[in-house]
Amino acid sequence: MKKVLMIGPDRTVQGGVSGVVNNYYKVGLDKKVELKYIGTMVDGSKFTKLIKAITSYLAFRSCLKDYDIVHIHMASDASYYRKSFFIKAAVKAKKKIVIHQHGGDVQNFYGKMTGKKRAKMAALLNKCDAFIVLAPFLYDFFKDIIDNDKLHIIPNSVAAPDFDMDKKDYDNQNILFLGRICKAKGINELVTAAEHLHKKYPDMKLTLGGFFEDEDLKEKCLSHPDYIECPGWIKGSDKDKLLKESSIFILPSYFEGMPLSPIEAMYFGCANCNSAISGTLQIFDSPLMVSGDFADSDNSAMIQDLITSENAFDSVFFNPKDVVSLESALDLLLGSAELRKKIGTCGRKTVDKKYDLNKIVADVCKIYDEIV
């Protein structure tokens, strides 16, 4: 059995990468290989994170000799600099290295580097034996940086409990967001749109499931307790319950690598509503793009055309950083339970077809086989 030493954010961290790792454990990657996981980052103060980085590096060095493969989950910015120490140690120990790139804003991070720093980053990343990206747009970006025979596309996926779509309630107007509550996730535009839409749809409820990273946004979100709820970071059965009870899921981010939350939402039959960014667009098979301003108009005819259309839309998309486009997209979904059901049902078919977690874990193990 192959011995794999895997590193990434601590499995308790509130974020997508730790979610990916936890899903690997749920479907038994640790039964297919001898797996040891070391968390290199935790939530908390800078001092807490520094202590965690140091202790995890020492733990990594102490057991590195006992493993065949080092699998490194990496994002951009601080994550890249932190993981660079682990890569160098693994290279020195002559271990096989898998780099798993998750960073949604890695293009911007790399683009801001000087020529010398870019060359240094490219040289370090090419020390790997396999380089995993989440989506085709990231493959296109890295193919000019990484040796192409090392590149692999393996999407994120979810391990969710059985859910009967016949039990999904599309009559409610519950909207769910899951993630960090910050400007880069489009929360400012979302709350602004919700303030307007609530006047038209008084039964609308927006749940922001996540932790606050911006005090100004916190004040704005908490000022509407009658229709905006902020229960904090949601996980486990509590998250599943919210996904079951929400007919609409929204992710208005400015950038993403390949977010897990829309895939989870599709599994639970939510009608997905997302900003049109590369990392999210490539999750879906048949998105509907909304860019017009019709939130204040009668859009019943448009809704009926979409319901009766032979096109099976699995999501609705709007322009990022655009309140008007976001509001118009939500207005379409809030205006019809039948349309929500059509999009949610189609989304469930997409996730069943494309995001089988057992196959994804098998693909990871295949990479292990190839490089050893």
Features:
13 strands; 372 residues; single chain; 45% helix
Describe, in plain words, how this protein is organized in 3D.
There is one protein chain. With 372 residues, this protein is an alpha/beta fold. It has 16 helices and 13 strands. The protein has helices at residues 16-26, 29-32, 46-63, 78-92, 106-111, 115-125, 136-142, 187-200, 215-222, 236-245, 261-267, 278-281, 300-308, 323-334, 337-354, 357-371; strands spanning 3-8, 34-39, 69-74, 96-101, 130-133, 151-153, 174-178, 205-209, 228-229, 248-251, 271-275, 287-289, 315-318. The protein has a seven-stranded parallel beta sheet with strand order 9-8-7-10-11-13-12, sandwiched between helices. A six-stranded parallel beta sheet has the order 2-1-3-4-5-6, sandwiched between helices. Helix 8 packs across helix 14 and helix 11 (261-267) crosses helix 15 (337-354). The relative contact order is 0.12. The mean pLDDT is 93.
Chart the SSEs and their pairings.
Blueprint lengths: L2 E6 L7 H11 L2 H4 L1 E6 L6 H18 L5 E6 L3 H15 L3 E6 L4 H6 L3 H11 L4 E4 L2 H7 L8 E3 L20 E5 L8 H14 L4 E5 L5 H8 L5 E2 L6 H10 L2 E4 L9 H7 L3 E5 L2 H4 L5 E3 L10 H9 L6 E4 L4 H12 L2 H18 L2 H15 L1
Helix pairs in contact: 3-4, 8-14, 11-15
Described by its quaternary structure, the protein is single chain
Termini gap = 11 Å
User: How confident overall, as mean pLDDT?
Assistant: 93
Question: Looking at the structure, what is the overall shape?
Answer: globular
How many distinct beta strands? Answer: 13
Low-confidence stretches: none
- Estimate what percentage of residues fall within beta strands: 15-25%
Estimated structural class: alpha/beta
Number of separate helices: 16
Strand order of the largest sheet: 9-8-7-10-11-13-12
How helix-rich are the residues, as a percent range? 40-55%
What radius of gyration results from the CA coordinates?
21 Å
Task: Characterize the biggest β-sheet.
Answer: 7 strands, parallel
Order of helices and strands: EHHEHEHEHHEHEEHEHEHEHEHEHEHHH
